Amino acid sequence: MNESLTTRLHRFAVARFSPQEQFGLHLTLGVLVLLLAMAGFARIAGEVVNGAPITALDLRLANWLHVHAHASAWLRNVLLVVTQLHSTPGMLALTALAGWWLVRRDARHWMLALVAAVPGGMLLNVAMKHTFERARPHFDEPILTLTTYSFPSGHTVAATLFYGVLACYLTRHARSWGRRAAIVLAACAMVLLVAGSRLYLGAHYLSDVLAGMLEGCAWLAICVTGVSTLRRRQAARAGRAASEY
C-alpha cells in the first residue's frame, strides 16, 4: 500500500514538471507565478490601506519627481507620449494590431490569450480601483489632472499584460537563450518605462505601479496558463481521435 502511494506521488510529481503533459510544467509555473504575485499584491495593498511606511515613501518620491518634471520639458514631453500611447484607447489599438498579427501567424490561441489578458485585465483593474478608492497624488500645479482612482496603476497593468503576452509568445519561438533573454529584458524595459512615466508625470504613487505590475503578472499567469492548457487538451483529444482510426 505504501509503495503504491509512493509510486502515485512520484508519478504525480513527475507529471507536474513534464513539458509535454496537459497539466505539466506550464501549469506548475503558472500557479507559482500566480501565488507569488497575489502574495506580493496583498502585501502592498495591506500596507497602503494601513498607512505603512511605504506610503511615506510614496509621498516623498512623488514630490521629488514633480519638481524635476517641471524642470525638464523635453523628458516630460517624451513621457507624455509614452503614457498616451498606453492609455485605454492606445492599449486597445495596440491589442487589436497585435491580435491581427498573431492571427496572420496562425497563432489563434495566443490571440485568445492576448484578448483575455489585456481588455480583461483592464476591466479587472477598474474593479480594483473602486475597491481601494485611493486618491491620486495632489499638486498645486499638476501636469495631469485625473478624476479616477490611483491604486493600482491601470497603465502599468495593461503594459504588463500586453508586453507579457508578446514576450511569452516570442520566447517560445526564439531559437537561443540569448534571444529569449533579450525578449524578456525588452518587455520588462517597456513595462518599467510606462510605470516610470506615470510616476514622473504625477499620476501615481510608487506603490500604485508596483501593485499594477503584480496584478498584471497574476492575471497574465491565469490567461496564458489557461489558454496553454486549453490548447494542449485540444491537441490531446485530436491525437486520441486520430489514433482510433
Automatic annotation (TrEMBL):
Keyword Transmembrane assigned: yes
Domain Phosphatidic acid phosphatase type 2/haloperoxidase: 110-224
Keyword Transmembrane part of the UniProt annotation: yes
Pfam families: PAP2
Record-annotated membrane-spanning stretches: 23-45, 85-103, 110-128, 148-170, 182-203, 209-230
InterPro entries, per database record: PAP2/HPO, PAP2/HPO_sf
This protein's UniProt keywords: Membrane, Transmembrane, Transmembrane helix
Matching PANTHER family: AT30094P, SPHINGOSINE-1-PHOSPHATE PHOSPHOHYDROLASE
Name of the protein in its database record: Phosphatase PAP2 family protein
